[in-house]
Amino acid sequence: MRRLRAEGYHFRRQVALEGYIVDFACFGARLIVEVDGGQHGVIAHARRDAERDARLVAEGVRILRVWNSDIDDNVDGVMDAIVAALKP
């Protein structure tokens, strides 16, 4: 995320927003990046994620979810996805 600061984007980590803690938030771009582990694939957890996402989207933010394993295995691809999500 620090690489994006040079492009004018500032991400805050572990931010309280609408009663939730989000992993990364860029308020200027109204973008949240959530980093998900395997527990997010469990139906009950995925349902809670969907409810949370719907509430946050209703507040005017966009959400990009990425897997921990993608960060480990393909950090450049994850960064490309974040950059794409930052563009209007």
Features:
88 residues; alpha+beta; Endonuclease, Chain A; 4-stranded mixed sheet; 4 helices; 4 strands
Q: How would you summarize this macromolecular structure in one to three sentences?
A:
The protein is α+β, with helices and mostly antiparallel strands and about 90 residues long.
Describe the structure.
- The chain is of the alpha+beta class.
- The protein has one domain (2-86): VSR Endonuclease (Endonuclease, Chain A).
- Helices cover 43% and strands 28% of the residues.
- It is built from 4 helices and 4 strands; from the N terminus they run H-E-E-E-H-E-H-H.
- It has helices at residues 2-5, 43-58, 68-73, 75-86; strands spanning 12-17, 20-26, 31-36, 62-67.
- It has a 4-stranded mixed sheet, sandwiched between helices.
- Helix 2 (43-58) links the parallel strand 3 (31-36) and strand 4.
- The longest helix is centred in the middle third of the chain and has 16 residues, at 43-58.
- It is globular and about 35 Å long.
- The relative contact order is 0.18.
- The model has no long low-confidence stretch (mean pLDDT 89).
Q: Sheet bearing the most strands, described?
A: 4 strands, mixed
Major beta sheet, strand line-up: 1-2-3-4
- End-to-end Cα distance: 18 Å
Measured by DSSP, the beta-strand proportion falls in 25-35%
Say what the CATH topology is: Endonuclease, Chain A
- Secondary structural class: alpha+beta
Give the total of beta strands: 4
* Helix and strand element order: HEEEHEHH
Query: What's the domain count?
Result: 1
Helix count equals 4
CATH class type: Alpha Beta
What is the radius of gyration? 13 Å
Q: Which superfamily, in CATH terms, is the homologous superfamily?
A: VSR Endonuclease
Averaged pLDDT, please?
A: 89
Low-confidence stretches: none
3D shape? globular
CATH architecture: 3-Layer(aba) Sandwich
Helix content: 40-55%
